[in-house]
Amino acid sequence: MPVERSFGELSLGLLKRASYGFLLEPVSLRFVPLNQTIYGYLQDLCQARSDPIVEELRAETLALGPVSNMAIPREEASLLSLLVSLMGAKLAIELGTFTGLSAIAIARSLPPGGKLFSCDIEPRWTQIAVRYWERLGLSERIELKLGPALETLRALPRAPLFDFAFVDADKENYELYYEELLPRLRPGGLIAFDNMLREGKVAESPSSDPATAVIHELNRKLAQDRRVEGVLLPVADGIYLARKVSTGLLPEGVSCFTRAWV
Ligand SMILES: C[S@@+](CC[C@H](N)C(=O)[O-])C[C@H]1O[C@@H](n2cnc3c(N)ncnc32)[C@H](O)[C@@H]1O
Protein backbone atom coordinates (compact mmCIF):
# COMPACT_ATOMS: atom_id res chain seq x y z
CA MET A 1 0.00 0.00 0.00
CA PRO A 2 1.50 3.41 -0.92
CA VAL A 3 2.56 5.28 2.16
CA GLU A 4 0.70 8.48 1.25
CA ARG A 5 -2.50 6.47 1.10
CA SER A 6 -2.13 4.69 4.40
CA PHE A 7 -1.14 7.93 6.13
CA GLY A 8 -4.04 9.75 4.43
CA GLU A 9 -6.54 7.09 5.43
CA LEU A 10 -5.40 7.29 9.00
CA SER A 11 -5.89 11.06 9.00
CA LEU A 12 -9.32 10.69 7.37
CA GLY A 13 -10.26 8.21 10.09
CA LEU A 14 -9.42 10.80 12.71
CA LEU A 15 -11.51 13.46 10.94
CA LYS A 16 -14.50 11.08 10.66
CA ARG A 17 -14.38 10.47 14.37
CA ALA A 18 -14.41 14.23 14.92
CA SER A 19 -17.49 14.70 12.74
CA TYR A 20 -19.34 12.03 14.77
CA GLY A 21 -18.62 14.02 17.89
CA PHE A 22 -15.87 11.80 19.31
CA LEU A 23 -12.63 13.26 20.57
CA LEU A 24 -9.81 13.44 18.06
CA GLU A 25 -7.12 10.82 18.68
CA PRO A 26 -3.80 12.39 19.65
CA VAL A 27 -1.70 13.16 16.58
CA SER A 28 1.08 11.00 18.07
CA LEU A 29 -0.91 7.92 17.04
CA ARG A 30 0.11 8.63 13.44
CA PHE A 31 3.02 6.78 11.93
CA VAL A 32 4.59 6.37 8.54
CA PRO A 33 5.20 2.73 7.56
CA LEU A 34 8.69 2.52 6.10
CA ASN A 35 9.27 1.17 2.62
CA GLN A 36 12.44 0.85 0.56
CA THR A 37 12.00 4.30 -1.03
CA ILE A 38 11.57 6.16 2.24
CA TYR A 39 14.33 4.14 3.88
CA GLY A 40 16.70 4.93 0.99
CA TYR A 41 15.79 8.61 1.34
CA LEU A 42 16.74 8.76 5.02
CA GLN A 43 19.89 6.69 4.47
CA ASP A 44 20.98 9.17 1.77
CA LEU A 45 20.59 12.03 4.21
CA CYS A 46 22.85 10.24 6.71
CA GLN A 47 25.40 9.30 4.06
CA ALA A 48 25.69 12.96 3.05
CA ARG A 49 27.25 13.71 6.45
CA SER A 50 29.32 10.57 6.71
CA ASP A 51 33.11 10.38 6.77
CA PRO A 52 34.97 8.64 3.88
CA ILE A 53 36.95 6.45 6.33
CA VAL A 54 33.72 5.36 8.05
CA GLU A 55 32.20 4.61 4.63
CA GLU A 56 35.30 2.51 3.86
CA LEU A 57 34.69 0.56 7.08
CA ARG A 58 31.05 0.06 6.05
CA ALA A 59 32.24 -1.34 2.69
CA GLU A 60 34.76 -3.67 4.39
CA THR A 61 32.04 -4.81 6.81
CA LEU A 62 29.60 -5.43 3.94
CA ALA A 63 32.24 -7.55 2.18
CA LEU A 64 32.18 -9.95 5.17
CA GLY A 65 28.88 -11.29 3.80
CA PRO A 66 25.59 -11.95 5.65
CA VAL A 67 27.25 -11.37 9.04
CA SER A 68 27.50 -7.68 8.05
CA ASN A 69 23.82 -7.42 9.01
CA MET A 70 25.03 -7.11 12.58
CA ALA A 71 26.41 -3.62 11.97
CA ILE A 72 24.25 -0.69 12.98
CA PRO A 73 22.85 1.31 10.03
CA ARG A 74 23.83 4.92 9.38
CA GLU A 75 20.75 6.50 10.92
CA GLU A 76 21.30 4.56 14.13
CA ALA A 77 24.93 5.74 14.22
CA SER A 78 23.69 9.33 13.89
CA LEU A 79 21.21 8.80 16.71
CA LEU A 80 23.89 7.35 19.03
CA SER A 81 26.22 10.28 18.29
CA LEU A 82 23.44 12.74 18.99
CA LEU A 83 22.41 11.10 22.26
CA VAL A 84 25.98 11.00 23.57
CA SER A 85 26.46 14.68 22.65
CA LEU A 86 23.15 15.74 24.17
CA MET A 87 23.98 14.00 27.42
CA GLY A 88 27.46 15.46 27.61
CA ALA A 89 28.56 11.90 28.34
CA LYS A 90 32.17 11.40 29.40
CA LEU A 91 32.28 7.71 30.22
CA ALA A 92 30.44 5.19 28.06
CA ILE A 93 30.30 1.44 27.58
CA GLU A 94 29.05 -0.69 24.73
CA LEU A 95 28.41 -4.42 24.65
CA GLY A 96 28.98 -5.74 21.11
CA THR A 97 31.80 -4.07 19.14
CA PHE A 98 31.74 -6.10 15.90
CA THR A 99 33.71 -4.06 13.31
CA GLY A 100 33.52 -0.90 15.37
CA LEU A 101 30.85 1.28 13.74
CA SER A 102 28.79 1.96 16.87
CA ALA A 103 31.97 2.56 18.87
CA ILE A 104 33.01 5.23 16.37
CA ALA A 105 29.59 6.89 16.57
CA ILE A 106 29.75 6.99 20.38
CA ALA A 107 33.44 7.85 20.82
CA ARG A 108 33.33 10.74 18.37
CA SER A 109 30.79 12.51 20.55
CA LEU A 110 32.78 12.15 23.75
CA PRO A 111 34.72 15.19 24.92
CA PRO A 112 38.53 15.22 25.10
CA GLY A 113 39.50 12.90 27.94
CA GLY A 114 36.25 10.92 27.51
CA LYS A 115 36.37 7.12 27.34
CA LEU A 116 34.38 4.29 25.78
CA PHE A 117 34.79 0.69 26.92
CA SER A 118 33.86 -1.48 23.95
CA CYS A 119 33.22 -5.15 24.80
CA ASP A 120 33.26 -8.11 22.44
CA ILE A 121 34.20 -11.77 22.48
CA GLU A 122 35.38 -12.18 18.88
CA PRO A 123 38.84 -10.89 17.86
CA ARG A 124 38.10 -11.72 14.20
CA TRP A 125 35.79 -8.68 14.08
CA THR A 126 37.46 -6.42 16.59
CA GLN A 127 40.81 -6.42 14.79
CA ILE A 128 39.00 -4.67 11.93
CA ALA A 129 37.52 -2.20 14.44
CA VAL A 130 40.89 -1.43 16.02
CA ARG A 131 42.44 -0.73 12.62
CA TYR A 132 39.79 1.90 11.82
CA TRP A 133 39.82 3.44 15.30
CA GLU A 134 43.53 4.05 14.78
CA ARG A 135 42.96 5.63 11.38
CA LEU A 136 40.30 7.91 12.84
CA GLY A 137 42.47 8.94 15.78
CA LEU A 138 40.11 7.33 18.30
CA SER A 139 42.45 4.74 19.83
CA GLU A 140 43.03 6.84 22.95
CA ARG A 141 39.32 7.22 23.49
CA ILE A 142 38.21 3.59 23.00
CA GLU A 143 39.35 0.73 25.19
CA LEU A 144 38.58 -2.71 23.80
CA LYS A 145 37.58 -5.30 26.40
CA LEU A 146 37.85 -8.77 24.88
CA GLY A 147 35.89 -11.54 26.60
CA PRO A 148 32.32 -12.41 27.58
CA ALA A 149 30.57 -9.09 28.23
CA LEU A 150 28.91 -10.36 31.40
CA GLU A 151 32.30 -11.16 32.94
CA THR A 152 33.70 -7.79 31.85
CA LEU A 153 30.73 -6.00 33.43
CA ARG A 154 30.91 -7.95 36.68
CA ALA A 155 34.61 -7.15 36.99
CA LEU A 156 33.81 -3.40 37.01
CA PRO A 157 33.07 -1.67 40.34
CA ARG A 158 29.38 -1.71 41.22
CA ALA A 159 29.36 2.10 41.30
CA PRO A 160 27.52 4.73 39.18
CA LEU A 161 30.38 5.23 36.73
CA PHE A 162 28.81 5.43 33.30
CA ASP A 163 26.84 8.18 31.59
CA PHE A 164 25.84 6.11 28.59
CA ALA A 165 25.59 2.43 27.65
CA PHE A 166 24.80 0.76 24.33
CA VAL A 167 23.72 -2.89 24.44
CA ASP A 168 24.15 -4.79 21.18
CA ALA A 169 25.73 -8.17 22.08
CA ASP A 170 24.07 -11.61 22.44
CA LYS A 171 20.33 -11.12 22.91
CA GLU A 172 19.87 -14.03 25.35
CA ASN A 173 21.82 -12.09 27.99
CA TYR A 174 20.10 -8.71 27.58
CA GLU A 175 18.16 -8.90 30.84
CA LEU A 176 21.33 -9.84 32.75
CA TYR A 177 23.18 -7.00 31.04
CA TYR A 178 20.46 -4.61 32.15
CA GLU A 179 20.72 -5.65 35.79
CA GLU A 180 24.51 -5.38 35.74
CA LEU A 181 24.52 -2.03 33.93
CA LEU A 182 21.88 -0.21 35.97
CA PRO A 183 23.88 0.00 39.23
CA ARG A 184 26.91 1.09 37.19
CA LEU A 185 24.99 3.91 35.50
CA ARG A 186 24.86 7.37 37.05
CA PRO A 187 21.41 8.78 37.90
CA GLY A 188 20.14 10.39 34.69
CA GLY A 189 22.37 8.08 32.63
CA LEU A 190 21.00 6.32 29.56
CA ILE A 191 21.03 2.74 28.30
CA ALA A 192 20.21 2.20 24.62
CA PHE A 193 19.23 -1.40 23.80
CA ASP A 194 19.46 -2.42 20.15
CA ASN A 195 17.26 -4.93 18.27
CA MET A 196 14.31 -4.53 20.62
CA LEU A 197 11.81 -5.18 17.80
CA ARG A 198 13.58 -8.29 16.47
CA GLU A 199 12.29 -7.52 12.96
CA GLY A 200 8.79 -7.28 14.42
CA LYS A 201 8.90 -10.79 15.92
CA VAL A 202 8.49 -9.41 19.48
CA ALA A 203 4.85 -8.67 18.67
CA GLU A 204 4.12 -12.33 17.84
CA SER A 205 3.53 -14.08 21.10
CA PRO A 206 4.50 -16.54 22.26
CA SER A 207 7.73 -16.47 20.29
CA SER A 208 9.38 -19.77 19.37
CA ASP A 209 12.77 -18.02 19.20
CA PRO A 210 14.38 -17.96 22.69
CA ALA A 211 16.30 -14.72 22.03
CA THR A 212 13.10 -12.98 20.90
CA ALA A 213 11.30 -14.24 24.01
CA VAL A 214 14.03 -12.65 26.19
CA ILE A 215 13.73 -9.35 24.34
CA HIS A 216 9.93 -9.41 24.60
CA GLU A 217 10.17 -9.95 28.37
CA LEU A 218 12.74 -7.17 28.71
CA ASN A 219 10.54 -4.74 26.74
CA ARG A 220 7.70 -5.49 29.16
CA LYS A 221 9.95 -5.23 32.19
CA LEU A 222 11.41 -1.88 31.09
CA ALA A 223 7.94 -0.48 30.43
CA GLN A 224 6.94 -1.20 34.05
CA ASP A 225 10.28 -0.70 35.80
CA ARG A 226 10.12 2.42 37.99
CA ARG A 227 13.91 2.63 38.19
CA VAL A 228 13.90 3.95 34.61
CA GLU A 229 11.82 6.02 32.22
CA GLY A 230 11.97 5.11 28.60
CA VAL A 231 10.63 4.65 25.13
CA LEU A 232 10.93 2.02 22.42
CA LEU A 233 11.84 3.80 19.19
CA PRO A 234 10.99 2.14 15.86
CA VAL A 235 14.39 3.16 14.47
CA ALA A 236 16.41 0.46 12.67
CA ASP A 237 15.50 -2.82 14.44
CA GLY A 238 14.03 -0.99 17.43
CA ILE A 239 16.01 0.90 20.07
CA TYR A 240 14.79 1.00 23.66
CA LEU A 241 16.07 4.10 25.45
CA ALA A 242 16.00 3.68 29.22
CA ARG A 243 17.07 6.60 31.42
CA LYS A 244 17.89 5.87 35.04
CA VAL A 245 15.71 8.13 37.15
CA SER A 246 17.54 10.54 39.36
CA THR A 247 16.06 9.86 42.78
CA GLY A 248 15.65 6.15 43.07
CA LEU A 249 12.18 5.30 41.79
CA LEU A 250 9.50 6.90 39.64
CA PRO A 251 6.54 7.90 41.85
CA GLU A 252 3.48 5.60 41.84
CA GLY A 253 1.17 6.37 38.93
CA VAL A 254 3.92 7.71 36.71
CA SER A 255 4.28 5.39 33.76
CA CYS A 256 7.02 5.13 31.20
CA PHE A 257 4.83 7.22 28.92
CA THR A 258 4.74 10.12 31.35
CA ARG A 259 7.60 12.58 31.27
CA ALA A 260 9.27 12.10 34.66
CA TRP A 261 10.14 15.13 36.69
CA VAL A 262 12.23 13.29 39.24
C1 LIG B 1 25.22 -7.09 16.57
S1 LIG B 1 26.96 -7.25 16.74
C2 LIG B 1 27.44 -5.66 17.31
C3 LIG B 1 27.38 -4.64 16.22
C4 LIG B 1 28.09 -3.35 16.56
N1 LIG B 1 27.48 -2.69 17.68
C5 LIG B 1 28.13 -2.43 15.33
O1 LIG B 1 27.59 -1.35 15.38
O2 LIG B 1 28.68 -2.79 14.33
C6 LIG B 1 27.07 -8.27 18.14
C7 LIG B 1 28.49 -8.50 18.64
O3 LIG B 1 28.39 -9.11 19.93
C8 LIG B 1 29.46 -9.98 20.09
N2 LIG B 1 29.12 -10.95 21.16
C9 LIG B 1 28.30 -12.02 21.09
N3 LIG B 1 28.22 -12.63 22.28
C10 LIG B 1 28.99 -11.91 23.13
C11 LIG B 1 29.32 -12.02 24.50
N4 LIG B 1 28.81 -12.99 25.27
N5 LIG B 1 30.15 -11.12 25.04
C12 LIG B 1 30.66 -10.10 24.29
N6 LIG B 1 30.37 -9.94 22.99
C13 LIG B 1 29.56 -10.83 22.41
C14 LIG B 1 29.65 -10.61 18.72
O4 LIG B 1 30.97 -11.12 18.57
C15 LIG B 1 29.34 -9.46 17.79
O5 LIG B 1 30.50 -8.81 17.36
UniProtKB/TrEMBL annotation:
Q: What EC number(s) would the UniProt record show?
A: 2.1.1.-
Q: For this chain's UniProt record, which GO biological process terms are given?
A: methylation
Q: Name one GO molecular function term.
A: S-adenosylmethionine-dependent methyltransferase activity
Top EC class per UniProt?
A: transferase
CDD domains hit by this protein: AdoMet_MTases (cd02440)
| Top-level taxon of the source organism | Bacteria
Q: Name one Pfam family in it.
A: Methyltransf_3
Kindly indicate whether the keyword Iron belongs to this entry: no
Keywords, in A-Z order: Methyltransferase, S-adenosyl-L-methionine, Transferase
Q: What is this protein called?
A: O-methyltransferase
